[in-house]
Amino acid sequence: MSSENGTIETDGEAAVIRFERHLPFPIETVWAAITDPAQRRAWFGETVLDTEAGTIEMLPEDPPAPDDAKRMSGRVLVWQPPHVFEHEWRQRIVEDGVVRYELSETPDGTLLKFTHRGLSVRNARGFIPGTHAFFDRLAAHLAGAELPAWGQRYAAVAPAYPSWT
Questions:
Q1: What phi and psi, each to the nearest 5 degrees, are found at residue 53?
Q2: Cα 94 to Cα 70: distance, rounded to the nearest angstrom
Q3: Are 126 and 133 in contact, with CB atoms under 8 Å apart?
Q4: Which of 7-16, 74-83, 136-145 has the lowest mean pLDDT?
Q5: Ramachandran category for residue 131: left, alpha or beta (phi over 0 → left; psi -120 to 50 → alpha)
Q6: Are the C-beta atoms of 17 and 116 separated by less than 8 Å?
Q7: Which spans in 36-163 are helix H?
Q8: What is the pLDDT of residue 164?
Q9: For the packed helices 150-157 and 121-143, what is the interaxial angle rounded to 10 degrees?
Q10: What's the CA angle centered on 128, arms 147 and 82, to 5 degrees?
Q11: Residue 19 has pLDDT above 80, yes or no
Q12: What is the pTM of this model?
């Protein structure tokens, strides 16, 4: 499991979450794990992705919160298999934003660059340990290993990040 931490860049009250993860798997394998709804369900939660209509809807398994608070939707903004997937992030409990996955081949696998733009600084601080936990689950899914419990990973990695307060 990767221990690569994300970062938060701020500009006033706006924030951008960034992660880079080196995954020892072919780019097509990582692309499928990020974009195939059946695979995404394993490490993230229910996902409906309609590239023809250009829409995405997601309901993550975690955190433990009401479905209407966790549900996300948006338009697909960039679809360039197997390199770039970008979509809006509309969720009732936070500001509208944009999520982007960029994949590039490396000699030993794939480099995943992830950004989540549009969150307030406060919400980015709450999201970053959760995003870290989801990427640890993605790495375990790709490796065919047991997925770590999201809540336990969140609690384990949260001290490495600035808190909500």
A1: -80, -20
A2: 10
A3: no
A4: 7-16
A5: alpha
A6: yes
A7: 37-43, 67-70, 121-143, 150-157
A8: 63
A9: 120
A10: 65
A11: yes
A12: 0.94
CB neighbours of 128 closer than 8 A, spacing ≥ 6? Answer: 6, 8, 17, 161
> For residue 16, what are the CA distances in angstroms to 55, 96, 125, 150, 158?
22, 12, 10, 22, 17
* pLDDT attached to residue 2: 42
> Looking at residue 26, what DSSP letter applies?
-
Cβ atoms of 87 and 36 closer than 8 Å: no
Tens digit of each residue's pLDDT (9 = 90 or more) over 23-61 = 999 999 999 999 999 999 999 999 999 999 999 999 998
Q: Residues 147-163: pLDDT tens digits?
A: 999 999 999 999 999 87
Tokens read off for 121: 């600084």
**147, 158, 155: which is closest to 61 by C-alpha?**
147
Residue that is written with structure tokens 């689950």 in the block: 137
User: Structure tokens of 124?
Assistant: 């980015």
CB–CB of 11/124 below 8 Å? no
Q: How far is CA 41 from the centre of its chain?
A: 12
CA–CA separation, 150 and 146 (whole Å): 12
